[in-house]
Amino acid sequence: MTTLTTRAPAAVLQTVWREIRLSWLFIRADRWTTVFPATCFVTAAAVHARLALHEAVVAVALGALYFWLFVYEHTLANQLVGVEEDRVNKPFRPLVTGDSSIRGARLRLAAVRIAFPAYGYCLGVLEWALLWQILSLLQHEYGWGRHWAGRNLYAGIGVIAQLAAAWEMVTALTPDAWRWIVTLTVTVTFLMSVQDLRDITGDRAVRRSTMPLVFGERRTRVFLCAGFAVGPAAIHHFLMAPAGPHWWIVATDVLLGGLSLLLAARVVLLRGPEEDQRTYRLVEQWYTLALASTLYTLR
To answer: Containing domain of residue 67, as a range?
Structure first.
């Protein structure tokens, strides 16, 4: 009897740990566009709201869990419909490596689709959780993901669902918070096709309609180069200038603007799957860095 009672908690802990590890395998490639930057925005909201330290720590922890579920739903749905493509483009994903079965991923997706809005309701952001779920259904079940315009809208509107929830789970949305949300929404909507440059082979194999395949790789690169090249002006005018002429704001302005110019150069000069993957990772890190700066630009 003692053996059974001691084994049961150990088995439960082992199962919980396995599920945490497996969820990490599903989401790890997307952490720089979801969990990390959105949690930074939660922290910025806590700083803006002047929460006590213990309240801020709790808010950030709750927010991090919310965005873990946020991206877990996306990656489960995305990888379930893209197994064959992932065999070509992303062979490290769990459904390709065998770390998860198709049936297991479907069961987890069903569970997350219930848990995520319930948790969003507890945090007071149910409307944004439901918006994300509607977008996910449109993307993965109703064909948005197979067309370049739908893919870009999914990413852009997803920024609204992400950042509005991040701020509102702490305090009421302000005009300054909305300025950041709208600016990043427009940026992501127009420039997110940078992710499709690395996946041309797999996208062609599954007949997905992406910008490089519809408009041509060269034209797509020129368009993205132009978009990143105007980045410093947009960053200064919409994000940094309203925060005032402090040296730390100027330094952030220069850093983000410089990264944007680097991306403009990389997208046309450095080509091929490996270089395009590095370019996309730099875009993710730019996004995270921009949102980290809201800790002092939105005080």
So the answer is: 30-297
